[in-house]
Amino acid sequence: MPIIDLDEPGKELLLMGNEAIARGALEAGVKVCTAYPGTPSTEIIGRLAEVAERMDIHVEWSVNEKVALEVAAAAVFSGLRAICAMKQNGLNVASDFLIDFDLVKDRHRAHDIYSMP
Q: Which residue has the higher pLDDT, 37 or 102?
């Protein structure tokens, strides 16, 4: 039984690093969780998937890191909190989207990313 969704304020828990990240995401109110599997980050989404139905969150494995980041960004543009997990080398794949992501100053201008020359 997963303990990352334990609702006992003040109780101390012993968690592995990735479990602690997943717990932090839940405490932060994340509603969309995406990732591309790869060690060492796989357990983050794996743990969140175990509690997704009970916690009413969307958890998905994406086809690559770029898509995972795009899904998380779309959630943020829609007003939801999101987390995207990937291994460090995956940032190279996601960089295509990430480089343009800084052009978006708020969610109302999200369309500017794809309409630039």
A: 37
Among candidate residues 51, 62, 53, 57, the one with its CA nearest the CA of residue 90: 62
CA distances from 116 to 57, 104, 111 (A): 33, 11, 9
Cα(112)–Cα(103) distance, integer angstroms? 8
What architecture (CATH level 2) is domain 17-115? 3-Layer(aba) Sandwich (3.40)
Domain ranges in the chain? Answer: 17-115
Q: Rounded CA gap, 65 and 71, in Å?
A: 10
Q: Tell me: the pLDDT tens digits for 7-21?
A: 888 888 899 999 999
Cβ–Cβ under 8 Å, residues 51 and 26: yes
Lookup: tokens for 74:
């779309």
| Residues 23, 7: Cα–Cα separation, whole Å | 11
Going by DSSP bridges, is the β-strand pair 82-85/32-35 parallel, antiparallel, or unpaired? parallel
Tokens found for residue 103: 């052009």
